[in-house]
Design a protein that fits this description.
Layout: H1 3-9, H2 22-33, E1 45-50, H3 53-56, E2 67-73, H4 78-97, E3 101-105, E4 122-130
Antiparallel strand pairs: 1-2, 2-4, 3-4
Helix pairs in contact: 2-4
Bound molecules: flavin mononucleotide.
Amino acid sequence: METREMIRSRKAVRQYSGQITDDQLQQILVAANASPVGMGEYENYRLTVIQKSEILSKMSGIYDAPTVIVVSAKHPDAMEDISAGTIVHNMELSAEDQGLGANYNMASLGSIPDGVLPNDFKPIFALTLGQTNDKFVPREVSLEKIQTNIVK
Ligand SMILES: Cc1cc2nc3c(=O)[nH]c(=O)nc-3n(C[C@H](O)[C@H](O)[C@H](O)COP(=O)(O)O)c2cc1C
């Protein structure tokens, strides 16, 4: 989809109708790796793709998503938090550009079972993912949602 249309079409999708394909996952991982991160320190982050139902069933707030991708870091501070946001946002846009449903997720972070993330890495942000019957249509976006001061 053309970028400006995609930006207006993206939305939180919380109902999923099936698992994503490995090819779709690969595209999403390309988007993650194409994200900007602070100081270009990509080695500070880990992506964990969770598709195992025994693990997903223990996680709360994921709306029965068949895939959850968790971004984690060893010593998260403001820069890592913000960078995790850019990674997840890039993945969301890639997923929805492929017609998948996706949503940002913080609610599940505390319920990720022990041993799922790499040792010493703490979860920062996650993306829930799956096939969806939702359609992506450019939305009207009010410029009053976020109050803006223009200083010039
Ligand atoms: C930092 C952040 C955390 C979020 N955490 C959750 C979450 O845990 N669960 C959820 O259902 N949605 C979560 N969302 C999605 C927002 O609720 C949603 O993006 C917002 O309401 C705007 O809706 P839209 O994405 O459809 O435009 C999160 C979004 C952001 C940016």
